[in-house]
Amino acid sequence: MEKLSGKKNTAVLISGRGSNLKSLIKYSKTKKALITIVLVVSDNTIAKGLNYANKSNINNIFIKYSNRKSFEDRLLKLLKRSNVDLICLAGFMKILSSRFIKKFNRTILNIHPSLLPKYKGLNTHDRAIQNKDKYSGATVHIVTDKLDSGKIILQKKVKILKSDTVKSLEKKILKIEHKIYTKAIIKLLASD
Ligand code: GAR
Questions:
Q1: pLDDT, tens digit, for every residue of 153-177?
Q2: What is the distance between the alpha carbons of residues 111 and 180, in angstroms, rounded to a whole number?
Q3: Domain-by-domain residue ranges, the chain?
Q4: Which sign does the torsion angle of CA 87, 152, 136, 179 carry?
Q5: E strands along 82-178, which residues?
Q6: Is 112 designated active site?
Q7: Which CATH superfamily is 8-105 part of?
């Protein structure tokens, strides 16, 4: 795919289903997109998300996570080779080291299914329901070496209904995730 001037070469890191990757690919194919997805990396060989990259002819690779250093060193080489300006974590379930973040030295974004700083980590929907929260939502933020921390770029909330289950809340929030990830990218890059 030809890179239009001004578009940021983007790598998307996934570990599984890849619905956020799918929506980022859809966005990247729109006329006014500010990103070109040049690389998809998964730490899980059977990640469903890899199929979306294949279908769109996007260079994609599985990197075995034997240990953090070897994974990150391999990843850094690939990022350099593809001239990557921006990384989007999309359901990538590993924490990147401060060494990696410093070496990459460009923006890394993450999407998380809660209203951060509430409910970092796993089982966010269950925790929100158990705590009888009135709202939950999704957050796009800059990645640091601390779990689900870093400057918030965009956040959107949804109401938790009495009838909501973990599954129904997940579904509602995922819908929001797909909208706010591209919005956050635009917010971040439009000012560049
Ligand atoms: C999404 O809900 C994403 O926010 C979450 O994993 C899911 C991946 O779904 N990420 C995290 O929890 C990161 N801490 P997807 O593979 O269909 O995009």
A1: 999 999 999 999 999 999 999 999 9
A2: 9
A3: 8-105
A4: negative
A5: 86-89, 107-112, 135-142, 152-159
A6: yes
A7: Formyl transferase, N-terminal domain (3.40.50.170)
